[in-house]
Amino acid sequence: MQTVTDSFHAAAGKASFIRKMFEKGLELKQQFGEDAVCDFSLGNPDVPPPESAREVLHRIADEAVRPLGLGYCPNAGIPACREAIADYLSRQQGMRLSGNDAIITVGAASALVCFFRATLDPGDEVIVPSPYFVEYGNYCGHFGGVLKAVPTKEDFSLDIPAIAAAITPKTRAILVNSPNNPTGAIYSREELLALIALVEETNAGRGDSERPLFIVADEPYRVFAYDGAEVPAILPMSKFVVLAGSFSKTLSMAGERIGYLAVNPALTVADGGALLSTLTLVNRTLGYVNAPVIGQRLAAAICCETVDLEIYKRRHDLMAKVLSEAGIEFTMPRGAFYFFPKAPGGDDVKFVDALLKEKILAVPGSGFGRAGYIRLSSAVDEKIIARAAEGFKRAADVCR
Ligand code: PLP
User: Residue 44, Cα to own-chain centre: how many angstroms?
Assistant: First the structure.
């Protein structure tokens, strides 16, 4: 079993890989023009929000100019928005949730930051299957938490014995992200049930501790699942599951910053609402006070809709074809909008540099805790994916 412990500084170093690509991209675009560069470095959803958003935004504009229309709102979110999101999650998770079981956060990012602020003491550990979304190190590092990366198996599925071996008395949470950024993996029901069994067993060993081990499920990509893949509902599996998510990707409203945290009602019965009330307080005092009110009203009205997922499916299939034709090896992602192929020749930084010479932007896997791979976002127009085909072939040939 191999684990990698991530300090705040190490996480900042990894984040700089993405920053470096971003800056390189700007440079290339300035030099050769926007159209000459094929940028697969960022997961910034460009598909328009559902058309219904237009009419809702007009209505919200009328509400907004009333007294307090743009004023502070309750820390946990506008009650009608909490109810709407609880209904949406009830259907998605197959269990009855009320508005009191969910709080509205500033995206999934601050849902996680909020959870870590509420639960971690300095030195506490958070286990994450790797490769993983690089900002996790910062999210828990803000409060002295330590991210402990446990490599997944070769096909990016969970290595349950390795996770079991990484648990210590300081382990406070296991952070699972499915569909996954950067690999596109979706964890199966069996994998999740095995993880739950591990957590339940650990908590039984901790007795009636006020510091149980949690699973925090980060699901901003939940609706992006291809070819009939099922994303199992994790919240009903145990009272120790806390669910985080957002509408950044599903409704293309990343800039409006609406996310949520939902707690299993059985936990609220068991802890007398302690976790929920701490999360609510933290949601206010982290400095952003409440999630944007226009975004909350918009999400409340359209949270059950999605962007046009067919567009993502076509991009996903095209990216798979382009990589296969370039002879680049990859595990077919079943969800999200990323590919995590092997770097031909084995050196991810060298391959990313060779791609740069072709004006193709990608991020080295080292930035996600797995050297030897690269990450490509497929949230990119089909024309750009097609245009990059020859460049992928040439760069792969140079590196082999
Ligand atoms: N979690 C993962 C795995 C992500 O990829 C992202 C953003 O890309 C986030 C969380 C944060 O998303 P949000 O915009 O909802 O804060």
Answer: 12
Does the pTM exceed 0.90? yes
Please compute, for residue 150, the number of CA atoms within 13 A of its CA located in the half-sphere on the CB side: 22
Provide the pLDDT for residue 10: 65
Closest CA to 375 of 131, 158, 127, 156: 131
**Cα–Cα distance list, 103 to 76, 243, 257 (Å):** 5, 11, 14
Listed by start position, the domains of the chain span 4-49+307-399, 52-302
Read off the pLDDT band of 102 (50, 70, 90).
Answer: very high
Is the beta carbon of 250 within 6 A of some atom in ligand 1?
no
Per-residue pLDDT tens digits for 294-303: 999 999 999 9
Say yes or no: CB of residue 262 within 6 Å of ligand 1: no
Residues 122-142 pLDDT 10s: 999 999 999 999 999 999 999
**Ligand 1, from 175, 231, 246: best to mutate by most atoms within 8 Å of Cβ?**
246
Strands 102-105 and 360-361: what pairing? unpaired
- Tell me which CATH code domain 52-302 carries: 3.40.640.10
Does the 4-49+307-399 domain belong in CATH 3.30.420.40? no
Report d(CA 265, CA 331) in Å as an integer: 37
Question: Do residues 70 and 293 lie in contact, with contact meaning Cβ atoms separated by under 8 Å?
Answer: yes
From residue 314, alpha-carbon distances to 134, 333, 377 in Å are 27, 13, 13
